[in-house]
Design a protein that fits this description.
By secondary structure, the chain is α+β, with helices and mostly antiparallel strands. It contains 6 helices and 8 strands. It has 3 domains: 71 residues, no CATH class; 76 residues, GMP Synthetase, Chain A, domain 3 (2-Layer Sandwich), CATH 3.30.300; 59 residues, no CATH class. Strand 7, helix 2 and strand 8 form a beta-alpha-beta unit. The N and C termini lie far apart (42 Å).
């Protein structure tokens, strides 16, 4: 896509992965056509980040399709120096994950480490984890801060967010919707499967996250979509079994 012709929105996968975020490319900001797979540096609400272009959306009358608020802004196409910095950060993220996993096991903490991300400006390391309840990780944070001499942030996420971060392929053979394009998690209920006369088989209705597949909503007519107040996000335990 030629960025000289109009303001555009590029869809960029930032940092350690997950679904694409919209990013504004102002007219004339980039001096050569952008292509899918191009590495870029963008400015977000939380700071500068490294990412990869995965798609394009034309801006129409100033409306850019961003989810909410102002979209991120593309600063530049990544230079060789940017790429070298990112490679060093990825090596540090892998080491931080290894050390974090070891310390979690040593302390017997009831948490599952999902991924570690270093912000592009190097200001902190973010440890994403899942857990059934609250976890006292104060001592863990102190040890990690001393080990890596960096600010440490522990961020608890849900199982759906974990699947979004890690990515993968569903039983349909396509990339997970949550990591490919889905902008928000909508409530899914067993009633949706019943309305479509689907088999209530947990192995067929479950996604990689162990929850009901988001795509159960896709085939329902608009009139049959329940209001949010009437729907709760259900696990497969509601089918009489255990969540995966």
């Amino acid at each position: 896509m030629d960025p000289q012709k109009a303001d555009t929105i590029v869809l960029v996968k930032l940092g350690c992965g997950g679904r694409p975020d919209p990013c504004l490319v102002a007219r004339g900001a980039v001096h050569k056509p952008l292509r899918s797979g191009t590495s870029v540096v963008v400015e977000t609400e939380s700071g500068v980040a490294f990412g990869r272009v995965v798609g394009f959306v034309l801006a129409v009358n100033g409306k850019n399709g961003a989810r909410s608020g102002e979209p991120a802004r593309l600063i530049r196409v990544a230079t060789e120096e940017d790429l070298a910095i990112r490679r060093r950060q990825q090596a540090r993220e892998r080491e931080a994950f290894r050390v974090g996993l070891l310390k979690i096991r040593e302390r017997g903490l009831a948490m599952k480490l999902t991924r570690v991300e270093q912000l592009y400006d190097g200001s902190r390391l973010v440890f994403y984890f899942t857990a059934e309840g609250r976890v006292d990780f104060r001592e863990l944070v102190r040890e990690l801060a001393a080990e890596f001499r960096s600010r440490i942030e522990m961020r608890q996420i849900g199982v759906r967010d974990e699947a979004r971060l890690l990515g993968g392929y569903g039983s349909c053979g396509r990339e997970l919707c949550c990591s490919a394009w889905l902008q928000s998690f909508e409530p899914v209920s067993i009633k949706m499967a019943k309305q479509q006369d689907l088999s209530l088989n947990p192995s067929k209705l479950s996604g990689l996250c162990g929850r009901l597949k988001c795509c159960l909503r896709y085939e329902l007519p608009e009139g049959k979509l329940p209001r949010k107040a009437e729907v709760r996000d259900e696990s497969l335990s509601d089918l009489g079994g255990q969540p995966l």
